[in-house]
Structure formats: C-alpha cells, structure tokens
Amino acid sequence: xxxxxxxxxxxxxxxxxxxxxxxxxxxxxxxxxxxxxxxxxxxxxxxxxxxxxxxxxxxxxxxxxxxxxxxxxxxxxxxxxxxxxxxxxxxxxxxxxxxxxxxxxxxxxxxxxxxxxxxxxxxxxxxxxxxxxxxxxxxxxxxxxxxxxxxxxxxxxxxxxxxxxxxxxxxxxxxxxxxxxxxxxxxxxxxxxxxxxxxxxxxxxxxxxxxxxxxxxxxxxxxxxxxxxxxxxxxxxxxxxxxxxxxxxxxxxxxxxxxxxxxxxxxxxxxxxxxxxxxxxxxxxxxxxxxxxxxxxxxxxxxxxxxxxxxxxxxxxxxxxxxxxx
Length: 326
Ligand code: NAD
Ligand code: LMR
Fold this sequence. Notes:
- The structure is a single chain.
- The protein is α/β, with parallel strands linked by helices.
- The chain is about 40% helix and about 20% strand.
- The strands form 3 sheets. It has a 9-stranded mixed beta sheet with strand order 3-2-1-4-5-6-12-13-14. A 3-stranded antiparallel beta sheet has the order 7-10-11. Strands 8-9 form a two-stranded antiparallel sheet.
- The protein starts with 5 loop residues before the first strand and ends with a helix.
- It binds nicotinamide-adenine-dinucleotide (NAD) and (2S)-2-hydroxybutanedioic acid.
C-alpha cells in the first residue's frame, strides 16, 4: 500500500524563504526518503496569487513525492489536520534593526495561528522561523492547546553558521565538527558555545584560541544575520530554508550518535532557564522528540553569556504580556 502523505503547512509561502523552502520539501528533503508530502501554503490575501504562481512551478517540477498543493488565506483551513507547521510568514528586519524591533509588527500574527493550530493533527510539529522567532513561538504556544513540546523556534541556522565558521578555522569539513551549542535567543545576545566541541571526535576545548573565540567567533555567529542583510541587501533566505529543513529532518529522524544539535524549545527549567521560555539548548532527538542534553558543566564564562540571552527572552516575554499576546 502506498504510504499516507504527510501534510506540511508553510506560512509566508510567497516570501523569500518560502520560495527556497517549498522546492526542498517537495523534493523529499524535509522528512526523508520515500515520504510523500502534501503542501499547504498559507498567505495573506494580497499574496495568494504569488503563492499560486509558486504552486504552478512546483507542479512543473514533477516532484515524485509531491502528493498535491493547496493554497489558503485562512489559517484554520491551512492548519486543519496538518502534521508539520512551518511558521515563516512575518516581516523580516531591514538594515539597522534588531530582531526584537519586529515584536509589535509580527507578534500579532502568532496568536491567531496558535489558536488555529488546535485543529492540527495529534502528532503536529511546529517550527517558528518568523522573527523574533523564540518569542513568536512562545506566543503561538501560549495561545494553543497543542502540547508545549510540539512548539519550537529556529536556532539551527545559528548552529549551522557556527559549524561553518569552525570548519573554516580548523580547515575541516562541517561533518567532522560535533557538539556545538547555541544557547538562548535567536538574536545578537545568543551564545554559540564550543566548550564541548569535537573535531573528528577529539575535544578542541583546551586548545581554542581565546581571543579568536571572544573577538571573532562569538560575535560573528551572533551577528551573522545582520552581516547577510548588509552584504546581500536582504535577509538570509536559502540558508534559512536549509536550516528549517535540517531542524525538522532531525526532529523526525533523530540526531547522529555521539552528537547533538541546537533548537529553541519550551524550557523545563534546565540550566537555570526559567520554565516556559522558548530558549535554545543543546538537544538530541529520537522517536520524534527533542530532549535537552543534561549534565553539562557550565563555566562562569558560559554562565554569564547564557544569562544575558535568557534575560533578553524574559524581557521579550514581558513586552508581549503587555501587548496582551500571551
Ligand atoms: P518575506 O517578506 O520575503 O516573506 C514573508 C511572507 O510572509 C510574505 O509573503 C508575507 O505576505 C507573508 N505573511 C505575512 N503575514 C502573514 C500571515 N499572517 N500569514 C501568512 N503569511 C504571512 O520574508 P522572508 O525573508 O521570507 O522572512 C520571513 C521571516 O523569517 C522574517 O520574519 C525573517 O526575519 C525570518 N527569518 C528567521 C530566521 C531564523 O533563523 N529564525 C532566518 C531568516 C529569516
Ligand atoms: C537571520 O539570522 O539571518 C535571520 O534571523 C534574519 C535576520 O533578521 O537576521
């Protein structure tokens, strides 16, 4: 019997990230080999026509695993019975803005979408990409009856950026680098942590060049989004789509033995991160669930940086509480 298609809803389908993401999903990269997908594209009414144009191109690409495409301007219909929700639709920042500056403009999108997700399938997995991603995920989760562990926000792009920088510095391929962590917020306060990082299974901790770490690596990764906007003239799109694919693929298919990844998930209080905040942690995935890697010793250097990013998340939560969004 042919396998049942997995319903994947993508919001902001006519945007830059949507355009890069949809073709990879249709090619089967999101869930794994041989899994058919049905795409549901959600857009605001003014952009529905553009999303329909993308749907025509998806048809023209003759993807063998693509079961069909539906285009919606109504969140309840787009999420009804869905198995994977990729919440991309939101305004990107422009030069000189911080992602938190988008809170008021974008926060309002995620309350009704959280409510609409109540109609999703029981196994739904939600990834928020639209910025500020962590707090938007908190808004969606707080307004939904879907279990909290199904809501995540994307720090996989930051994780991949850190892998890229390390591979360049050490002259290795990304696949040789493991155990990198992004802690906290998908913002300039995030903490890319290499304390436990290994290359070819050997820890680099004691050999790391401290001035490179503090003056180049950490700020470079944390501010890479702004660097892309500056150089490219628009916010990251294909790399963001690739990270969204990686995030869901890992969530569904698991992490590599002996490695972990980074994802922003609802905190259970681990590592002193207040319960309920959507914060990035080192995580493993198995059987369709993320779990925080436990028992890592946190140095004073790391503690200070984790706390700074988590404090920013606390402030963002207070701001959206004031806006009546959570
Ligand atoms: P874009 O402006 O090209 O596309 C956004 C799309 O969302 C538009 O087509 C718009 O019509 C649509 N949209 C707006 N409100 C919507 C709603 N309520 N429902 C459905 N669709 C809606 O932007 P983009 O470059 O694709 O970026 C999208 C978001 O992703 C931005 O907020 C950006 O900052 C963020 N982003 C996050 C990461 C990350 O790592 N978490 C990385 C890159 C970009
Ligand atoms: C990124 O990290 O590239 C995105 O969050 C876009 C941005 O505003 O930086």
